[in-house]
HAD-IA family hydrolase
Amino acid sequence: MGPHRVVHGPEGPVRARVSPPPAPVRAVLFDFSGTLFQISGYADRVRAVVPSPVGDAEMDEILTNLEAGLVDPEVVEAQRARDVSARAHRHAFTTWYASAPQLAPYADALYAQLQAPEHWLPYSDAEATLARLADRGIALGVVSDVAWDLRATFAHHGLADCFSAWVHSYEYDTEKPDPRLFHEACGELGVEPGETLMVGDHPAKDGGAALSGLRAYVLPAGASPGSERGLEAVLRML
């Protein structure tokens, strides 16, 4: 057994060794949906595409059908590897929308909303957090499992200029936590993975950045569109 190999027991390394202090964080990578932005509510989106008025009782039935569709076997199967290509992403979402019978004729229109910048809302603390990071000289990048270029959405809300790296999963035929995505963003920013923090809302995908040598911070799920996300925690971590 080589002298440099670290063997871990149930509680930690068998042979103690002095570890160097962690490198300072020079860059932060952000996920998109659920981290910096959230799309407008489904009730508003449905009313925007259905030509006739939708009452509260009918809307409740539509939303119940959407919730039920999330466990429909056909919908579940359509979600597999949905972010590796634009085609797979469209199929995944339109299959889910169409699982609510009332929305089947409007599945394509609902999907078009996903790529429309005006339907996405930044969380209320996103702009201030990004500005403070930039003021500290921290390089910023976006790493997102997505099926279209996000720069137009960020630009629509005045946030595109904050970022120097854009890594979209569909352009690489893969999804997070594939190390290629994180390492590509680090390369574009000119930083090492050990100098980089990944911030997102998915424990396996965004938290998986730790397996690629980055640090990771996973936000709790459930923040409503336009609300405060708790992004100031990122500033405290630096």
